[in-house]
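User: I'm new to structure prediction. If I give you an amino acid sequence, what do you actually give back? Let's try with this one:
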Amino acid sequence: MTQSDVDGVEGTVADRNPETIKQEIDQARNQLASTVDSLAERANPQRLADDAKAAVIRFVKQPAVAASLVGLGAVVVVVVIRKIKRR
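Assistant: Good question. You get back a string of structure tokens that encode the predicted 3D arrangement of the chain. For your 87 residues, that looks like this:
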């Protein structure tokens, strides 16, 4: 950075209204706080677990999946009954 760059920056900052600068800082702080809150909510382990549970329930409730699970359950019951009878 050259001296003329520094002088240009200082001139720009010095020419700005301090109240405007304060308002811009407050606005940036509020936006940052909102972003941090949003990220904290997204990363909440309980929320992640609830979302995963809801996704699994939606998947299982699909007709094709439900029918497959019923069929699998029937096969398991038949296999268990056969093993019990062979004892």
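You can read the tokens as a compact description of the fold. Here is one thing that stands out. Residues 1-43 form one domain.
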